[in-house]
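User: Sorry, folds how?
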Amino acid sequence: MRDFLGGSPLSVFGRLLFLSLLVGAALSFLNVTPLDLLSRVMRVFSGLSADVVQNTATWTLYGAMLVIPIWLVVRFSRGNMA
């Protein structure tokens, strides 16, 4: 589990908590909420045609079919090589 997460679960949790605090503070400083970001992304996609969105989703799925298994193999092999 430690190799898969990139460290001990407690230290990974601590790093993620710290980064979340920093990002939250930056967003608060910029007066941006997660809902604002989501609505901006939705506005960008609503301006696109359905074909562009469909093609992008298809390309993403094709890429994920290769990227995810390779990533899993690399993550699991790192644990076996140590």
